[in-house]
Amino acid sequence: MIRFATIGTNWITEAFIRAAKQVPSFHLQAVYSRQKETADAFAEKTGATQTFTNLHELAASDDIDAVYIASPNAFHAEQAIVLMNHGKHVICEKPLASNVKEVKAMIETVRKNDVVLMEAMKTTCLPNFQAIQHHLPKIGRIRRYVASYCQYSSRYDAFKQGTITNAFHPAFSSGALMDLGVYCLYPLVVLFGEPKSIQAHSVRLSSGVDGEGSIILDYGEMDAVVMYSKIANSYTPAEIQGEEGTIVIDTIHTPTRVHIHYRDGRTEDISVPQPHEPMYYEALEFMTLIERGEKESTINSHARSLVTMKIMEEARKQTGIVFPADERFA
Ligand SMILES: NC(=O)C1=CN([C@@H]2O[C@H](COP(=O)(O)OP(=O)(O)OC[C@H]3O[C@@H](n4cnc5c(N)ncnc54)[C@H](OP(=O)(O)O)[C@@H]3O)[C@@H](O)[C@H]2O)C=CC1
Ligand SMILES: O=C1CO[C@H](CO)[C@@H](O)[C@@H]1O
Known about the structure:
Layout: E1 2-7, H1 11-20, E2 26-32, H2 36-46, E3 50-52, H3 55-60, E4 66-69, H4 73-85, E5 89-93, H5 100-112, E6 117-120, H6 127-135, E7 142-150, H7 154-160, H8 176-192, E8 197-204, E9 210-218, E10 223-229, E11 238-242, E12 245-249, E13 258-262, E14 267-269, H9 278-292, H10 302-319, H11 324-328
Parallel strand pairs: 1-2, 1-4, 2-3, 4-5, 5-6, 7-10
Antiparallel strand pairs: 7-11, 8-9, 9-10, 11-12, 12-13, 13-14
Helix pairs in contact: 1-9, 4-5, 5-10, 8-10
The structure holds NADPH dihydro-nicotinamide-adenine-dinucleotide phosphate and 1,5-anhydro-D-fructose.
């Protein structure tokens, strides 16, 4: 049994708990919130038996083995480091942190402690993503990866009315690239590694974060184009274009229906059953690592989280997006 605590009381933590409960070794021991009333209400809703309002008490507790972090991005590194220094395993929401320095500090903390740290990037743990990897050689020499995640945010309505919520505030290391662009980039890094160079463009909002953006990534004999937005929608599937065929993926964040369109006109459905909720697979991966005494996921590895963050930081540099967290760790 792995005794979990959670940080963050928004809907995503409920979704994680619901999915993780399908893994037999999961036990929800405690929830953390800044406010006692919120913690109590969330514990009642989720079945946790303990609550915390002090991160250091949570970190020091002998009742907890692992923590799922779903706080605003700006707090991921700080919270994870405190927890890992007390021997807690950490599964931390995407993006792993605010910037490269923070990711490096987190990886350094893993090295000093006997703990697992994994970025909760659901996409790459999904059976249909693994099907894409398996069938990739069938499309011949790869020439382009295209992915978009553009979803108009209800919080943008509030923004237009003059209320800047966490999702659009630089103090929380937010914006379209950090929130949605990461879903296009992480699978790209898993499939093709680190690009030689990138060119980024973004539409900056008055708060200083990006509302949308695009990045072209140079891989020498192939390139990648990723597009992301919190201020407009896109219905375009993702594609991996090869000389012999093209893999078409319905949605990059949660691949469910995946087809190969061969150049000779044939089509092959390479989708596989994905019976569980999307977050089940990342939860299973994380818990399996703990049970096997392994330090890191070979899927959502530290190196891949670091390369993804390097790309995002470079894109921010090119487009003038600075977070207070960058100065904190400078
Ligand atoms: N995997 C997925 O599909 C999704 C992942 N995410 C990720 O989850 C994380 C949280 O996102 P989201 O729920 O939108 O974020 P929120 O801004 O809603 O904050 C999440 C939680 O953090 C706490 N919090 C809020 N504001 C502050 C603050 N100023 N200081 C400290 N703690 C605060 C709150 O918990 P409390 O009040 O109880 O302390 C809140 O429930 C992000 O990293 C995001 O990228 C988000 C949605 C989907
Ligand atoms: O990761 C995410 C996926 O979906 C959400 C929107 O529905 C995002 O805002 C979020 O951060």
